C-alpha cells in the first residue's frame, strides 16, 4: 500500500521525507518491524514508543508515525507527525487491513461483568444458525471454528485489525467482541465501525488504571457516544447506569430488563442447579444456566439476536440448547454429594452475584464454603471488600492466592483480611497454597453443601513473578474428588 493511502482517515500535522513509498507492514512494536514497514510510536500509559524509533529504523522501518519528530532525523526516512498517535494507529491499521468492518457486522459488548458470556453465546448461536462467525474475547478468539489464543480482553489495534481482516477474508458475516474499558480509553478500537453495542452493568473494577469509578464509567460511555446512527445500543435497565450509557449516543437505543418494562423483558420462573425456567417476552424456555446474572446475560443475547433480524422463536430454541461458558458457574458434583462451582468472579459485585445465586437455589438446605483470592498488581481497594462480601454470604471462607504476579501472596491475603471484623475472621481460614485451599474446602464439605472456587474460572495458569505456571481449578477439583 502507498504511504499516502494510509492517511486518508487521520489528521496529519506535517510529513518530512519521501512520500511516494510502498508500505508492506504496520507495527507499534519495534521488534516486529522489517524492511518496508511503518513504525507507529505511541505514547502509552507505561512506555513511550518514541524511545524505540531508532530501534525500529535499525530493523528496517522506512517510515515513522509520531507525535514528536526526533531532533536528529535519519536520511531517507519519512516522518509523519500527528496530534494523537493512539487515535491514528487504529485508523491506519483499519485502512491497511482493508477496512474489515465495512463487510462485517461487528457487535461490541462492554460492562464490568457478563461480557465473555454474552459475546461467546452470540458467537455459538450464530454459528448454529449457519453463519460464519468470529469471536474476540477474554478466553479465546475464534475465526469461525479456528481458535486463536488471546492475551488481552481486547487486543492492540494492529493485532485486532489483522484478526478482523482475516475474519473478513474467511467470509465471517458476524463478529462478537468484548470491548474493555482499557481498549476504549486507549483508542484500540479507533477506526472500527460497530453495527451494535451491548451494555451489561457497571461495578467497581480496574481502579488501578482508571483511579475513579467516574473515569471508568466515562470510558465505557465513550463507546456508545461514538456509535454511528445506523447502529443499535442495547442497554441493561436493571443497572443504574444503563440509561446513562446511552444518553448521548446517536445509535438506536433498546433496553432489556428482568425487573422493568423494556423492549426485551425477562423473568425467572424456576431455578435449579441444572438450569432455569425463564419467561422472555411472554414465551417460556428452559436453559442450562443458573442465576439472575445469567438470566440477564441470556436476555441480552436474546435481544441482540432479534435486533440482528432473527425471529424470537428460533432464538429461544437456540438459547435452550446452549451451554455455560467455561469457568462461568461451572459445576462439578462430587461422588459424596456436595457441589463445587468454579467461577471467574474476581470483583466484589461478581462474587455477590454468584453467592446470591447459590443461596437462591440452595434455599437454606446446605452450607456455602467459598475459596477466594485477589490478583496481584491490580486494584488493591477491592481486596477487603471481596473478603467482606465472601464472609457475609458464606458459612466458611478460605482466603488463598489467585494470580499474585509480582506481589507476595500473604501481602494480598492480609489486604483482604483487613476488611473483616473479629467475627468474620473466626469463619475464615487463610491458606496461601491454592491447591491446598481447594483440598481443605472439599474436606470441610458435607453432602448437600456447595463450594465456590472464585477468581480464576477458565484460566489454566497461575501468574507468579512473571511466570505462568499450569494451574486449572477445575482439574484440581476433579483430581481431589476423584
Give a verbal description of the structure.
The chain has about 475 residues and is α/β, with parallel strands linked by helices. The chain has 3 domains: about 90 residues, Udp-n-acetylmuramoylalanyl-d-glutamate--2,6- Diaminopimelate Ligase, Chain: A, domain 1 (3-Layer(aba) Sandwich), CATH 3.40.1390.10; about 220 residues, UDP-N-acetylmuramoyl-L-alanine:D-glutamate ligase; about 150 residues, Mur ligase, C-terminal domain (Protein-Tyrosine Phosphatase, Chain A, Alpha-Beta Complex). Helices cover about 35% and strands about 20% of the residues. It is built from 16 helices and 24 strands. An 11-stranded mixed beta sheet has the order 9-8-7-10-6-11-12-13-14-15-16, sandwiched between helices. It has a 6-stranded mixed beta sheet with strand order 17-18-22-19-20-21, sandwiched between helices. Strand 8 and strand 9 form a beta hairpin. Helix 2 packs parallel to helix 4 and helix 15 packs across helix 16. The longest helix is centred in the middle third of the chain and has 16 residues. The chain is globular. The protein starts with 13 loop residues before the first strand and ends with a helix.
Amino acid at each position: 500500500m502507498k504511504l499516502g493511502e494510509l492517511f486518508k482517515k487521520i489528521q496529519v500535522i506535517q510529513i518530512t521525507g519521501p512520500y511516494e513509498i510502498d508500505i508492506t507492514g504496520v507495527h507499534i512494536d519495534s521488534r516486529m518491524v522489517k524492511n518496508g514497514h511503518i513504525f507507529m510510536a505511541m505514547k502509552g500509559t507505561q512506555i513511550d514508543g518514541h524511545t524505540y524509533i531508532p530501534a525500529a529504523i535499525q530493523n528496517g522501518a522506512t517510515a515513522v508515525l509520531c507525535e514528536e519528530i526526533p531532533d536528529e532525523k535519519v536520511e531517507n526516512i519519512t516522518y509523519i507527525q500527528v496530534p494523537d498517535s493512539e487515535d491514528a494507529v487504529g485508523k491506519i491499521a483499519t485502512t491497511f487491513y482493508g477496512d474489515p468492518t465495512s463487510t462485517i457486522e461487528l457487535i461490541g459488548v462492554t460492562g464490568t461483568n457478563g461480557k465473555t458470556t454474552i459475546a461467546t453465546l452470540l458467537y455459538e448461536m450464530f454459528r448454529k444458525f449457519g453463519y460464519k462467525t468470529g469471536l474476540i474475547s477474554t478466553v479465546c478468539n475464534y475465526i469461525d471454528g479456528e481458535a486463536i489464543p488471546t492475551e488481552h480482553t481486547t487486543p492492540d489495534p494492529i493485532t485486532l485489525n489483522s484478526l478482523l481482516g482475516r475474519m473478513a477474508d474467511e467470509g465471517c458475516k458476524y463478529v462478537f467482541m468484548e470491548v474493555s474499558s482499557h481498549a476504549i480509553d486507549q483508542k484500540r478500537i479507533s477506526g472500527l465501525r460497530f453495527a451494535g453495542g451491548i451494555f451489561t452493568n457497571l461495578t467497581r473494577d480496574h481502579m488501578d488504571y482508571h483511579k475513579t469509578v467516574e473515569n471508568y464509567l466515562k470510558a465505557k460511555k465513550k463507546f456508545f457516544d461514538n456509535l454511528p446512527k445506523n447502529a443499535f445500543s442495547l442497554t441493561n435497565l436493571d443497572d443504574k447506569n444503563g440509561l446513562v450509557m446511552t444518553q448521548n449516543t446517536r445509535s438506536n437505543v433498546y433496553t432489556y430488563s428482568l425487573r422493568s418494562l423494556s423492549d426485551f423483558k425477562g423473568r425467572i420462573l424456576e431455578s435449579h442447579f441444572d438450569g432455569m425456567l425463564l419467561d422472555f417476552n411472554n414465551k417460556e424456555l428452559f436453559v442450562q444456566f443458573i442465576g439472575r446474572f445469567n438470566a440477564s446475560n441470556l436476555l441480552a443475547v436474546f435481544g441482540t439476536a432479534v435486533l440482528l433480524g432473527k425471529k424470537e422463536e428460533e432464538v429461544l430454541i437456540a438459547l435452550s440448547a446452549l451451554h455455560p461458558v467455561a469457568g462461568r458457574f461451572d459445576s462439578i458434583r462430587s461422588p459424596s454429594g456436595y457441589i463445587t462451582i468454579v467461577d471467574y468472579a474476581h470483583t466484589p459485585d461478581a462474587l455477590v452475584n454468584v453467592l446470591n445465586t447459590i443461596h437462591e437455589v440452595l434455599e437454606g438446605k446446605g452450607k456455602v464454603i467459598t475459596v477466594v483470592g485477589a490478583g496481584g498488581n491490580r486494584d488493591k481497594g477491592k481486596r477487603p471488600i471481596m473478603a467482606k462480601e465472601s464472609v457475609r454470604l458464606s458459612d466458611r471462607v478460605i482466603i488463598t492466592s489467585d494470580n499474585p504476579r509480582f506481589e507476595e501472596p500473604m501481602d494480598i491475603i492480609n489486604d483482604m483480611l483487613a476488611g473483616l471484623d473479629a467475627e468474620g475472621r473466626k469463619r475464615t481460614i487463610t491458606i496461601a497454597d491454592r491447591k491446598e485451599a481447594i483440598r481443605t474446602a472439599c474436606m470441610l464439605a458435607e453432602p448437600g453443601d456447595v463450594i465456590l472456587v472464585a477468581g480464576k474460572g477458565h484460566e489454566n495458569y497461575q501468574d507468579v513473578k512473571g511466570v505462568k505456571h499450569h494451574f486449572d481449578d477445575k482439574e484440581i477439583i476433579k483430581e481431589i474428588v476423584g
